[in-house]
Amino acid sequence: MSATVENVDQPGKPSPAITTATLISGAIGLAVGLALAYPVFFEGGRALAQGTNMAWGLPVATYAFLALGSFGLSMVAAVGGVFGLSGWNRITPRLYMLALAVSFGAIAALAMELGHPIRAIWAIPLNMQIQSPLLWMGVFWGVYVVCLLAMMLRLRRVDALERGSRRLAVVILLTCLGALFTQGLVYGMMSMRPVWYGIGTPLYYMYGAILTGVALALLFINLTHGFSQDNMVAAKRRVMRDQLPVIFLVALVGYAIVVSAKIITGLWAPTTGVQVVYEHMVGTGLFWFEVLGGVLLPIALMAAPAMRTRPAVQGVAAVLAVVGLFIARYEFTVSGQQVPLFKGSWVPGLVEYSPNIVEWGILVTGAFLALTVYAVADRFFNTGPYSAD
């Protein structure tokens, strides 16, 4: 059966009540987040908790996590189009919608973190710091968002495996890889921050993005169907039972290896200011929750073939992985600044940091803006014979 014919045959769709509940939850969460974060619109950076010794905190970790999630979702969605995999055209429209929504959340968090969200709209492009990876990340990211919008419009009329859609999927894949790589370079090129500095940082970000994308894909597809695969078409059910969970398991195992190598090398690093930070990190409960709850427990849940095909188990494992990945982004952002610049580990004590209520508001705003945009797109834009079911 051709991909086009298969895509028109739709025996059932998710209940509209799920989309409505998602939209209401997103709107309420967004209102709460804006209520907490509103001082940043009037006071700028003074409303944030970071000082000169901790320039980047929870808002940066929020934007980085959401950006990685968007890029990872697009990489998962593009796999079917680029390689022409059967059945993946059933999940790609929804994943592209989610990737675009998560990008909006990331952009909002970044704009608020800069301290002057409105000023950032015109000030950043006019500065044109062409030697900074931040500028090129913005260029790749901007093209990537435009391509996502074009893909969403296209998938209302043609199938994801159609030639033009597959070509556009290649462009989306290249632009998200460019944005992802330059985001990693922002940290990896900072020689004054030895915890961040190194060739492995962009690769670490890339692997984290892949795992985040797979986890979010599993979570939201199951959520949309009420954690039941009975109302999925056969091709989509095969992807959700036989393909995506196995990819999730492989990604989890690979990420566990990457994290292990990162911690071991950090604890034995000869570079001044690295070892002391990693010793502090592994002594925290947050780190062990990330490792045990966010990596090892999902691996255990997905390792048994009879377990990983169950939507509820997939959802639990995905949530745990997403929480663990966010903790990893937060730890990486903060730990890289715990040793004061140019002073080394001989300085008594590490730089202290605790997010304030405004920064928590930025996190809530970014996350629930993404959820709201996704629900709006699902309810009012997801139409036509080739839309996500």
Write the layout of secondary structure elements.
Layout: H1 3-8, H2 16-37, H3 39-43, H4 58-83, H5 92-113, H6 117-127, H7 133-154, H8 163-188, H9 200-224, H10 234-267, H11 275-281, H12 285-303, H13 305-308, H14 311-335, H15 357-381
Helix pairs in contact: 2-15, 4-5, 4-8, 4-9, 4-14, 4-15, 5-6, 5-7, 5-15, 7-8, 8-9, 9-10, 9-14, 10-12, 12-14
Would you kindly provide a written description of the structure presented here, covering whatever features stand out?
This protein is mainly α. Helices cover 72% and strands 0% of the residues. The protein is globular, with a radius of gyration of 21 Å. The N terminus is likely disordered.
- Approximate helicity band: over 70%
Main sheet summary: none
Mean of residue pLDDT values: 85
- β-strand percent reads under 5%
**Which assembly state applies to the chains in this document?**
single chain
Unreliable residue runs = 1-12
- Rg from alpha-carbon coordinates: 21 Å
Number of strand elements: 0
Structural class: mainly alpha
Please count the helical segments: 15
Query: What is the CA-CA span between the terminal residues?
Result: 18 Å
